Amino acid sequence: MGFPSVRPRRLRRTTGLQRMVRETTLRVDQLIAPLFIRHGEGVSRKIVSMPGHNQLSVDMAVREAESIAELGIPAVLLFGIPAKKDALGSENFDPEGIVPQAAYAIKKAVPELVVISDMCCCEYTDHGHCGIINVPGVPGYDERLAEGYLLNDPTLELLGKASVVHAQAGADIIAPSGMMDGMISTIRSALDNAGMEHTVIMSYAAKYASAFYGPFRDAAESPPGFGDRSNYQMDPGNAREAIREVELDVEEGADMLMVKPALAYLDVIRQLRDRFELPLAAYQVSGEFSMVKAAAERGWLDEQRTAMESLTSIARAGADMIITYWAKDAVKWMR
Ligand SMILES: [Zn+2]
Question: Which residue ranges does UniProt annotate as crossing the membrane (predicted)?
Fold first, then answer.
């Protein structure tokens, strides 16, 4: 049977009917709000390329976390801006480092809020890369590899060490984002050996070398000092490789998976959703946020509608959780 008996528009005739047949509705439980933490007190420093977002000192981040929890958002994702950067990113594994301080303070003030620690070296290294760079003198220097190449296994050791520090400070979830081979198994055994076997690992399993990260580097003050990240992050042309990456992370003991960025990789989200059982997150990255903000400022796009459509599409593609700079706005817009 077809037209004229069949008329799909019947189900779109009223908003009541539309509500009844809507397949995907964004839920507040799906949202994760990123926070950028810096040293100091009473600090709230505007991130110019991400309107409405600020780098916050720990006391201000606690207040922000409280308002995030009041809205019903279940989790925050912490990024740290260290006092000092060096070749190894030492502040990342310093118990007095900025993220451990923030994790501790937030868990104390808002225990029910899930604290996720982004686990990478790039915010802490003076060269801005996600681990130890191959130059004579660094731990694990390898003369067979080019100078400037990111050393995988020596970096793993730092990630294991820092993960334990962040978990001991109170982080519920460690989210390694550097795309190092073996990062999940290394972090899992480091946590387990330290008696942190209940700490969750959310793997940035399929993270692409993306141009959409531009504004974030402003926010986290972490642009690579030379070259790019294409010898560790994934090629935007590859989807089968994402499946391979996820298979490995599942084997290594990841509890949750992630695709980053989101909008340009909805097909990858869908393929991973169909193949794997683990909870899947998607990161709607800074560029996805800022380009809509910029267009909205010019009156070229309606921010609310564009943001909600984009978030809904990420959920429809199969993401259980969405990390988004619109987390707080989205909750208000859902009401
Ligand atoms: Zn990194």
Answer: none
Structure tokens at 48: 């110019």
3-state class of 168 per DSSP?
A: helix
Q: Which protein residues have a CB closer than 5 Å to ligand 1 (ion)?
A: 120, 122, 130, 178
Cα dihedral across residues 35, 39, 41, 46: positive or negative: negative
The domain 24-334 having CATH identifier 3.40.50.720: the answer here is: no
Question: Which parts of the chain have pLDDT scores under 50?
Answer: none
- State the amino acid at position 106 in one-letter form: I
Distance of CA 278 to the CA centre of its chain: 17
Find where tokens 């990342």 sit.
Answer: 92
Place of tokens 């950028």: 36
Per-residue CA distances from 58 to 93, 237, 246 (Å): 18, 39, 34
66-86 per-residue burial string, b: 16 or more CB within 10 A, e: under 16 = eebbebebbbbbbbbbbeebe
Do you know the residue count of the chain?
335
245 is in an annotated binding site: yes
Q: Which pLDDT does position 221 carry in this prediction?
A: 84
